[in-house]
Amino acid sequence: MNQTIMITGASKGLGKALALGFAKKGNRLAICARGQEELFKVKEQIEAEGAAVIAIQADAVKSEDVDRFVSVVEEQWGAIDVLINNASIFGPGPEYLLDYDVKRFEEVLRVNVMNPFIVTKRVLPGMLTRKTGSIINITSEAGHTGFAEWGAYGISKFAVEGMTQTWADEAADYNVRINMVDPGEMDTEMHDIAVPDCDYTLAKPEERLEVFYYLASEASEYRTGERFEAASFSGVEAGEEHE
Fold this sequence. Notes:
CATH architecture: 3-Layer(aba) Sandwich
Number of strands: 7
Number of helices: 8
CATH superfamily: NAD(P)-binding Rossmann-like Domain
CATH topology: Rossmann fold
């Protein structure tokens, strides 16, 4: 692919899998996360694949952190071709809304809704100017259907889905595509929090990357404002071949 791929929340889980997967395909990676130690371990793994990487500790909810991160990448590499807004938190765990602490509710919505808004707002102008680019937001089945005890997380993903469609409509005339992916249930720390007594087999994050490769490629150039499910996605379904 040989593109610049920016991923937030890239120190573990799906974000880490995405960073390593795109690195193996010959892309440049720009990654950030709040935890420096885990982030730099991912940086070392990317470099071991022979890929170029910029890794910066940053909180994607803080505008100054986002501006610093994006500015460094733009200064060194110029254009950002693909942005994957992956960073999010689940919250305190399974809990009914009636019992939800107000401050924790506000925190989950602030992190999960504001970070894709802030990062997109900073990256999108460059894509609009060049009239090319792909932005991918992470959603969930809980952002499509309300589930008891998924609380603020599910509600935040409802907001992300609406924001994705709004951004897509606003950018439609500039050849910038903005889509969302539901990766499905995966074996991650977040899923451990959401379903602490899980007794069924979960997919590995590495098994859910194909749709992201597609949305980063020219094969998806006419797809925007859409919702993709990683668990059921295939190149045949997309109707296109992609590397």
